[in-house]
Amino acid sequence: MQKIFIIIGFIIGSLSNVMAQGSRASQPNIVLILADDLGYADVGYLGKKPGISTPNIDLLAKNGMAFTNAYAAAPVCSPTRASLLTGKSPAALKLTCHIPGMGMQTYLDKFNKGQKLKEAYFVDRLDSQETTIAQLLQRNGYATGFIGKWHLAGDGSAQSNDGIINPDLLPDKYGFDSNIGGCAYGQPASYFSPYKNGTLPDGPAGEYLTDRLGDEAVRFIVRHKDRPFFLDLSTYTVHTPMQAPEATVAKYKGNKYYAMIEKLDQAVGKVVGKLKELKLMDDTIIIFYSDNGGLQENPPLRERKGSLYEGGIRVPLIISWTNHISAEQISHEPVTTVDFFPTLLEAAQIPLPKEGQLEGQSLWPILSGERTTARQPLYWHFPHHRSGTELAMAAAIREGDWKLIKDFESEELYLFNLKEDVGETKNLQATETNKTKDLLLKLEAWQARVKAEMPEPNTAN
After folding, report:
1. Is the pTM of this model over 0.85?
2. How far apart (Å, rounded) are the C-alpha atoms in residues 60 and 289?
3. Where are the domains of the chain?
4. Do the two domains 27-369 and 379-457 of this chain adopt the same fold?
5. Who contacts 225 (Cβ-Cβ below 8 Å, separation ≥6)?
6. Which tens digit of pLDDT belongs to each residue from 184-218?
7. Does domain 27-369 have CATH number 3.40.720.10?
8. 379-457: CATH architecture
9. What Cα–Cα distance (Å) separates residue 421 from each residue in 293, 294, 300, 426?
10. In which order are the strands placed within the sheet that holds 378-382?
């Protein structure tokens, strides 16, 4: 009888250990590759920029679903990153602007000077009370790793020596078992070692940052290959400073931007190559995405990073899962950052948290080919100035083919039919008055619902 109890105890203990580590059958690995400032046109598979070389990203698109109407939650980085982690809009999080490396007050003084409106209030960190996707996955047996750019950890990083403003705001406090490279920096001190990054030990002199982060991602995969894992590889590429190895720059006749994109593509290739080598492709969801519109021109879209025109918010998105998502699919459905949270929890068979207000919709009806779920409108709220950028300091809504932008300072409205005019050249608000009123009412109702912070008159001028 004693032997029976011992055996039963051993079985129960073994089952508990398996449950603690997660189940491969019900919990796929999740690899999120988040590029920085990579524009809609900055990938080879779309064919918008001759000379761009992204064979690994292109192959990922071929093996999964590529989205042509994917959006970032904001036209700048920090808000999108916070939104992705929480499933909430930047407006709901009060984190609607990039967290300024120059320091909050210096930033506000600079950008409010001479303006009709002063920027709306925003915070300089991801609230520690928010529940992140990493925390939920971690609690359900996933190994979780963050590698790369965090930029949610306090203002003033440009004045620091190592990018660390407050250790309590780093990724390991938000559900990640390990953190390599994530700090308050919005851009690297240098793309070449020494990095001056308190969470990234320096490599050999001259080591290239994007190469290093790709190598770290591979090491994470190898360490956790026998249990479900969540890898967030958030590259600093292609954010300034424009730096790349001389040999790669020479291939593009001095075009450092294209050279940096090639190095990004190589990092993607390292990750996918290791998953293939370890025979993990059937068990791994891979997402490739960008945090905002491109730093440079984004044909055929209008404007770039910082604008609520399409060039500032429409981004590349690929989702691949071998033998689960059919290959060579293209979706034209409008989707955005808050949709990842419910999508990934559904894939991992984890219930949505009851607290808080999740704003996204699961993408599985699209990924499975069902497309039976009506898509809700997409919203943006960006009450911030951008020098030389059209339609910053604005809010927007997209519903179906229609998009409305409201300029906060001029109070002008811009209505576009994106199906017919993706370049946003024809403002239809004067002729499509009913559509304009309908979208404006929905936009304002959403702003009230999430308690969006609004810009105020600038009495300092």
Report:
1. yes
2. 12
3. 27-369, 379-457
4. no
5. 278, 280
6. 999 999 999 999 999 999 999 999 999 999 999 99
7. yes
8. 2-Layer Sandwich (3.30)
9. 18, 20, 10, 7
10. 378-382, 394-399, 402-407, 413-417
